Amino acid sequence: MKVTEKAPAKINLSLDVLNKREDGFHEVKMVMTTIDLSDRIECEELPGDEIRIFSTASFVPEDQRNFAYQAADIIKSRYGIKRGVMISITKEIPVAAGLAGGSSDGAATIRALNRLWKLNMSQKEMLAVASMVGSDVAFCVKGGTALATGRGECVQPIPSPPPCWVVLAKPPVSVSTAEIYQGLCLERAPHPDVDAMIQAIKKQDFNKICRLLGNTLESVTLDRVPEISQIKSHMKRMGADGVLMSGSGPTVFGLTQYESRMQRLYNSLKGFCPHVYAVRLCGR
Ligand code: ATP
Q1: Is 105 tagged catalytic?
Q2: Residues near ligand 1 with C-beta < 6 Å?
Q3: Where among 107, 126, 157 does a domain terminate?
Q4: Do 80 and 45 belong together in one domain?
Q5: Which stretches within the chain are classed as H helix?
Q6: Does the keyword Nuclease apply (predicted)?
Q7: Do residues 140 and 172 share a domain?
């Protein structure tokens, strides 16, 4: 038997880092939303007891470092499953881009194995497994739009922003989330107003959402990847209503409600940047 799940990427509309905890993790407060750019996870039963990973993209580990592997491993030991599985990952989300591709693959694996092995997991159980895999995996289990706190694993659903286009551009470099956090100086970095963002979303005030876009990590990644400033200025010049770097970067996104502006942005970035996408917000 074979089960397939979509693993959508996310963007952060607001990302604040509050402090560094004694366990080494940072306490964050962020608004995340799902976008219509997805990997595809296919889980197929294998004879024996082994977890095997296949990915269509280079730079994605095909062993226990893969979040999909980790999710399967935790589920097998938690539920006493003695069966093998082949997990095939068709990557569309760029890797190490600030779009939670790996986390979403982990979350989609939890949903897929729940179906494949008929585990009847509650959402609470799925979230418990997700937080053992990684900070952003819990959000990816539910998707939609949410406020995430703690190290990112405490997820509270909120309404979704009004429909709009998201144009994404990733400069040809990857960044390590851990290194960006290490370079962060909390006193000097800007801190966005996450509560005001939630209010703007509840009021469906698109212009205010665009004005309030903010990310504490942006200044750190900007120092290492100068293309980010160039892409941001370019997107603003080409008519994006709001522009921000997602997660720890380096992907930059621009928002607009007009299809014509989306087309202009997309066309002007193609050729300038190797990875450009125009998608819809799909937070439920
Ligand atoms: P986040 O936004 O959550 O910080 P990201 O988008 O910056 O994540 P990912 O694409 O998730 O980054 O990749 C980060 C690292 O995770 C990669 O360098 C890779 O080694 C590892 N990884 C583990 N599993 C996966 C996976 N299924 N797909 C991609 N990368 C994976």
Answers
A1: no
A2: 60-61, 65-68, 89, 95-103, 105, 136, 177, 247-248
A3: 157
A4: yes
A5: 67-79, 101-116, 123-133, 137-142, 177-182, 194-202, 206-212, 218-224, 227-237, 259-269
A6: no
A7: no
